[in-house]
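TOKENISE THE FOLD
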Amino acid sequence: MNAEEWSARGAFHTLHGHTLFVVDTGAGDRTDADKPALVLLHGYPTSSHDYYRVLPDLAAHYRVIVHDHLGFGLSDKPRDYSYALYEQADFALLLWQHLGVRSAHVFAHDYGTSVATELLARWNRGFHPVPLESITLCNGSVHIELARLRLIQKLLRNETLGPVVARLSSQRVFNRNMRQLWHDPETLPQADLDTMWGLLTRDGGKAVLPRITHYLRDRVLFWHRWVGALQRSQLPLNFLWGAEDPITGRDVAEVHHAEAPGSRLTVLDGVGHYPMLEAPRRWTEALLALLAK
């Protein structure tokens, strides 16, 4: 599915002066709107398009809502914005309230896991603007000290080098870096890479990429808040993980599971960093099973 086809699946919503791209399977359909809600948070540096393969099967059971974070995909990419993860959490909550979500399961991948753990930290402190049923995390580096970061991530977060690296970045380099995240790179279609790159660079995306990459610093700054929230979760907590992820593999998932009492862990063998794209059927079945427990 290319960017234009994905765009046609969703709509644009303006909140507090910024516009978010949103796919909501309950929009305009009363039957789907009455299903329990499942909200999806995507990763870095991609977009909500990451879920295009799994959306139909999930929508058979849930009202699925997925949006592009500010700075990503088809959403606004303002130059004068902090891109702090706690602000991304603010916008997620504002959006769900705007869409009339009464309660929701949260699934988060990669970058989105820090947005989700910020929501959990607030929930543990009694802040419940949108009632949450559970949180499921997937291949994220909230435990930043355990992550095996790629060189491009380290360069982009550098204050001096970041803007230069972003400006000089090319699709050829992007393709190579993305293929390294797949357990079997041959299963990553060139068409998907073309769409990812197009959404990343759309509307001046290169210019905001260094600032977005500062999320890695947020993970250091708020380590105790976010890891602590997982360790003391007052919500049902799941981990659904691609075992062969070169950044945050099986070992990271096992650390999370061991330190979060009552959590559930499902590991997908033979799958890398993007399990919803690499093994969509297995990922969907595993997520539905976790949410049904």
Observations:
- The mean pLDDT is 93.
